[in-house]
Amino acid sequence: MTEPLAELKLLIDECSDEERAIIFEYLRDRVPQHPLEREWGVGSDVILSAISRSSDLTKRGVRGIIAEAIFEKNILPRLRDWKAAAFTGNPSYDFLIQSNIGKNVRYVFK
What we know:
Layout: H1 3-14, H2 17-28, H3 35-40, H4 44-52, H5 56-75, E1 82-84, E2 95-99, E3 104-107
Antiparallel strand pairs: 1-2, 2-3
């Protein structure tokens, strides 16, 4: 970490919650939006607020797709010789992985 960055972090730690909120808004205007924010034309705070006020069924669905994303990002890269396999429709499983020799494994998150 560079010296100016370390110093900036220390200064932010000394700020009040209100001051950190102002800094957060300042940075939000300068950091590129997530592709979904651009696609939907709303910020992450609106998306999260909408999910927060949604039904339990919607929240469970969102938790499911988050679990899939975490699996793909954090677990799958550790599985030697396996990769995500594309599938279409609405199958009875959540994730399909394929080995280098062509064997498929289906996984259902619970």
